Amino acid sequence: MLGALSLHGSETGHVLRHQHVAEPDVRLHTRLLRERHAPVEPLLLAAPDLGAFLGCVEEALNRPPDRTVATPHGGVQRLWAMGGAWSRRPPALPPVLLADGHHRFEAARRLHRSHPAVLGDRLPALVVDHGRHPLRLAATHRTVPGLDPHRAADVAARFARVTELPAAAPRPVPRAGTFLLTGKSRRWAISRISPVTTARRLRFLPSEWAELSAAISDHVLLPILCEDQGLDPVPGYTERYPADDEAGLILPPPTWEQIWSGAAGGTVMPPRTTSLGPGPLPGLLSALPR
């Protein structure tokens, strides 16, 4: 379902955020919102239960769509416009997870508070029936321009178990507790990271982060590997496997239990921990029936 999400949803507990935001990204989205006065794409929300809105979906499926749009990959997107009581007096949804769009959401909240004339108090959002159609869960990986992966593997071996993988091996998704260092067409599995090193590097962060791959990547592994080579430990982010000529770190994904429990309990994850999808198709807002 596509609708308008109140920017106050996180304050009332109806919108559960599961990741921290990075200030540079929030500033970027704030600038874009100022220029456009509206977002280009909707947020992505995961609803474990549609509640009373299930009737809206069932009602729509009993009639032909109002518009059919071809997708970039050869599929078809069918759209229904729901008016009447569904629009005038929409029922409340149970709490939903903000799956994608944390930086846009935070930028909109701040911009509305400081300049309400520039941006209203709602954003378009796509709600997915996560109970029936679960979103795909993957990790967001890291790239490190300039990092020498061979030297990094040697340094990692001082505080972790490092095993080079065969060059012809398939590109695996690492298991929990294991990271893949890639670069120059070679790959190393990094596991059994020293608990002492981890505890020292994470001592000022939430204790739950000791189980999160993004926290260990960004506060333990990458700082140590980059410090040894005189590099700034600020990575790039990617949802794909790094190219053979890129130095990168492949992360294992968190579990859904970690995501939901952290979001509900207020202990959110580091920025750029997850990659949840599929997200809204490009141009969805412009394709809506009028």
Which features would summarize this protein structure in a list?
290 residues; alpha+beta; Conserved hypothetical protein from pyrococcus furiosus pfu- 392566-001, ParB domain; 9 helices; 23% strand; 6-stranded antiparallel β-sheet
Please characterize this protein's 3D structure.
Pfam families: DUF1015 (PF06245). A hairpin with a 5-residue loop joins strand 4 and strand 5. The model has no long low-confidence stretch (mean pLDDT 92). This protein is α+β, with helices and mostly antiparallel strands. It has two domains: 146 residues, Conserved hypothetical protein from pyrococcus furiosus pfu- 392566-001, ParB domain (Alpha-Beta Complex), CATH 3.90.1530.10; 110 residues, no CATH class.
